[in-house]
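User: Hey, my collaborator sent me this sequence without any context and asked if I could get a structure. I don't really work with proteins. Can you help?
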Amino acid sequence: MDEDLVALSVPGTVADAVAEVERSATASGMTVSGLVDHAAAARDVGLELDDAVVVTFGNPRVGTRLMQADPRSALDLPLRLLVYSDAGTTTLLYRRPRTLGAAFALEGEEETLATLAGALARLVSAVAGAVDPSAGASGPGKGRP
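Assistant: No problem. I've predicted the 3D structure and written it out in structure-token form, which is a compact way to encode the shape of the chain:
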């Protein structure tokens, strides 16, 4: 896998993990700005796709610094976390924030990028520890293995 990507398998369903991402992000002071449910969009046009939801979230106190340094970094902000099912395994996937530093003129913002990296690592760890596999499906993926 690309070294700029971080993946972590978690127990439970995609819906359970998405709910926990939203809860954990909000509890840590971040704002969840949106969900993109790719599987629902596929179903809407008569196609099948395993559950895949992108959660966008961030903290303007942190992300704004990067956008001030290089407005183009807004292309990749707020942060994104993909929660998807692959053969029944729920996985969290995100791109390391250092890739922003490589893609945009963010010299001098290493501390901000490290703050983002730490926040993402804490978020996925919290989700991995909090998702209850016995809770059952409660949304996308209900009834799927």
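In plain terms: Residues 5-123 form a domain with the TATA-Binding Protein fold (CATH 3.30.310.70). You can pass these tokens on to your collaborator as they are.
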